[in-house]
Amino acid sequence: MTYAVIILTGGKGERLGGVDKAALSYRDATLLDHVLSVVDDAAQKVVVGPEKDLPGVIWAREEPPGGGPLAGLAAGLAKITEDWVVVLAVDQPGLTRDTIARLRAAGRNAVLKDDRVQWLIGCWNAADLRRALPEDPRNLPLRKTLLRLDPVEVSALPGEARDVDTPADLDTLHSG
């Protein structure tokens, strides 16, 4: 089963002083490079956020920029033609190819769950997503829209769902 990926990078990074999370250094690359590496088998790779010089990536931007993750999802979804789409945020260094494989293996709408549901780590039927999107998705909660799709919860492995939101997260990222 082929699939597309939508990677949301448009957050403001306010708790990190306005830093561009996609450009944060991780291992010998950036967080965006890392997330792209775990979905390198995706038929389409759509990144929603400020455009960078990366081959093989389709760029999208929510209108207006800063309209929230649901608006970003809608902008990315407008660019894909695959039946299944993996939706990820850029600030997730714990993601692996296995994470994506387990979500896809569910064979239905699926989200990763550790101590809570990780709405920005999921695999979705694109037609279901399109039907669930509100006409104007700006500043509306992503969780509420995705919850209506009754996803199966896939258990996260330790550290798999960690993200980078605070200076402490950034310190952990650089020391790990």
TrEMBL record:
Keyword Transferase in record: yes
Pfam families: NTP_transf_3
GO MF, one annotated term: molybdenum cofactor guanylyltransferase activity
Entry's EC annotation: 2.7.7.77
Residue span, MobA-like NTP transferase domain: 5-136
Keyword annotations from UniProtKB, A to Z: Cytoplasm, GTP-binding, Magnesium, Metal-binding, Molybdenum cofactor biosynthesis, Nucleotide-binding, Nucleotidyltransferase, Transferase
Gene3D superfamilies on file: Spore Coat Polysaccharide Biosynthesis Protein SpsA, Chain A
The protein, known as: Molybdenum cofactor guanylyltransferase
